[in-house]
Amino acid sequence: MRYQISGKQIDVGAALQTHVQTELNEVVSKYAQRPTDAQVVFSKSAHEYVCEATVHLSTGLTATARAHATEIYASFDLCCDKMEKQLRRYKRRLKDHHQDRSEPVELLGASSYILASEEHETDAEPESLQPIIVAEMETKIPSLSVGEAVMQMELAGAPVLVFRNEGKDGLNVVYRRDDGNIGWIDP
Fold first, then answer.
1. Domain Sigma 54 modulation/S30EA ribosomal protein C-terminal spans what residues (predicted)?
2. CA separation (Å) from 110 to 40, 158, 171?
3. Tens-digit pLDDT profile for the chain (187 aa)?
């Protein structure tokens, strides 16, 4: 597994890198068969250290965890505990669904746009109805079952996930509702 350990305006020493590789490798190898790479980023927010970890699995799914503490090692240990909990749930769900994906998730390319927010005065009329595009990026849309899409959304900690439904070959959306349940849009 490849590791990318970095810090945002923080010097990450060799001892911390060794600790991260050892602990993360132990957690990931326990619950995931073929992890491909892991990215760990340390940063500082006021008086606390923040650790963000992302592990990409060969199945195409991604697990993300984030934690903060007053000590840098403690922030990583909390983050690692969250990652272990997510991977344990992921493995349990795979067993519960009796579904072990043998091939990687197929990804479709798509364009993603960031639109400028319009802050107009209450009396001013907008010049046009066309939004201003701030950035255009390439994004990937995975081909998943509905259960895998919900699992991927929860692993990534995302509020919404667009995916191609393997069963029907159409684009679908799963999202977290305000009441805590999961919504599924199947056009």
1. 130-183
2. 27, 18, 12
3. 888 899 998 888 899 999 999 998 888 888 776 778 889 999 998 899 999 998 887 777 788 899 999 999 999 999 999 988 888 887 777 665 545 555 666 777 777 777 777 664 445 666 667 777 788 888 888 888 888 888 888 877 788 989 888 877 788 999 988 888 888 888 8
Please, are residues 42 and 8 in contact by the beta-carbon 8 Å criterion? yes
Distance (Å, rounded) from C-alpha 152 to C-alpha 157? 8
Find out whether 114 and 135 touch, Cβ atoms under 8 Å.
yes
- The domains located in the chain, with CATH, are 2-96 (3.30.160.100), 107-185 (3.30.505.50)
Q: Which of 114, 110, 163 is nearest to 138 (CA)?
A: 110
8 Å CB contact between 170 and 186: yes
pLDDT value for 70? 93
Longest dimension (CA), the chain: 60
**Residues 148 and 61: beta-carbon distance below 8 Å:** yes
49 residue type, one letter: Y
Strand segments (E) across 70-168? 107-115, 133-144, 160-165
What's at 3, amino acid-wise?
Y
User: Parallel, antiparallel, or unpaired: how do β-strands 107-115 and 62-69 relate?
Assistant: unpaired
